[in-house]
Amino acid sequence: MELFRTPADAILFALRSTSQQYPQSGMAQLMKRSGTASGKGLVALDAAGQAGMVLARLERMDPLARACIVARYSARTEDCPCCGGPKALDEYKAAIVLLADWSLQFISSAMSVRRIRYAIVQDYFERKRSIGATAEEIGVPRRTAYDQQAKIRPHLVDLDKAAQEEIGDMLEDLCGEQVK
Known about the structure:
Layout: H1 7-16, H2 26-34, H3 44-59, H4 63-73, E1 77-79, E2 86-88, H5 90-102, H6 114-126, H7 131-138, H8 142-170
Antiparallel strand pairs: 1-2
Helix pairs in contact: 1-3, 4-5, 4-8, 5-6, 6-7, 6-8, 7-8
């Protein structure tokens, strides 16, 4: 029996599972027995175990490929414990920083601003980060920022595609459909 429809579903489940699992409620148990419950039945320790198996496979990936998977599928923010506002998740932030540092090799100019590379990588995965606005904010010419984006993006696309294929192969025994 496949637990997940696609590798993306498996990764989303694992990366977005809460670290605190609770026993199944009495109502949920009754619904499961009566046949009105839906889903794969992954709750409490079963869910934690399944998430752990998916994450273990993710950990076997090359760090750059893993960073692509985390940047694409993980939650991006959480509530800040002190102010309640949104705060970037450490795992997501680390993935973007790793990919931004990796992208430096594709820029031949002497001018490379880490924040621009960070914005370029974040824009690739989120599609809501403005490269031009970031350039303006930190005083870098827009043309420079867009030039760097044109140099980095094709390599990022290739890396992300390879990472998607690799994790798809690693999770094929857990999934029904394969998206390639």
